Amino acid sequence: GKPAAVQAAMELLVEAHAAVGGDVVSGGGTGTYAVNRWVTELQAGSYCLLDTDYAQLDSPFHVAVSVLASVVSVSRRGWAVADAGLKAFGMDHGPPSWPGGEVAFCSDEHTTLHDPEGTLAAGDRMRLLPGHLDPTVARHERLWVVDGHNVIDCWPVDLRHW
Q1: Most C-beta atoms within 10 A of its C-beta, which of 51, 134, 143, 159?
Q2: 53 phi and psi angles, rounded to 5 deg
Q3: What was the pLDDT predicted at 129?
């Protein structure tokens, strides 16, 4: 399982560290933080914002990043379309999710949602949760930090030369 695989990899890293020396043993990540006791620096970069892929793990962390979209159309048959699609998300870990229902399909510019209860109306703002955080952030120029409905900060995203 995961603990045994982490242990084998980390024992190899610690052995290499002993051969070359240094103050820091760096490794691991968000998905293995709970079973990694060998490093002095844990490389858990996604835990603070998370994504729906990591949220499936047994973890105390919750998804804290979303893409704000507007509903551009709804149908009486329980479908809605939002104005954020493939170009707004990293799709390599699957499509975004919507806590209010099911994501049916993503095109380049839009996400089609199954909304059988008719909770969405044209013009509504809604949040879609990314399947993979890193490439989703890379598609945007800034992150808006919010507390409830209040914007409290704006963080520039500058990935030039990345």
Answers
A1: 51
A2: -65, -50
A3: 97
Q: Estimate the share of the chain in helix, then strand, then coil, as percent rounded to the nearest 5.
A: 20, 30, 50
> 3-state class of 43 per DSSP?
coil
pLDDT at 152: 98
Task: Write down the pTM of the prediction.
Answer: 0.83
pLDDT recorded at residue 162: 66
Residues of the chain predicted below pLDDT 50: none
DSSP state of 108: S
Report pLDDT for 48: 87
Nearest partner of 53 among 41, 43, 42, 65, judged by Cα: 65
| Architecture of domain 67-156 in this structure | Beta Barrel (2.40)
Q: What is the pLDDT of residue 22?
A: 87
Q: Provide the residue ranges of all domains of the chain, joining segments of one domain with +.
A: 2-45, 67-156
The structure tokens listed for 79 are 């479908």
Cα 158 off chain centre by: 18
Count CA atoms closer than 13 A to 86's CA, side-chain side. Answer: 5
Give the position of tokens 């159309």: 73
Residue whose entry in the numeric block shows the structure tokens 């691991």: 28
Torsion, CA 130, CA 135, CA 139, CA 140, rounded to 10 = 70
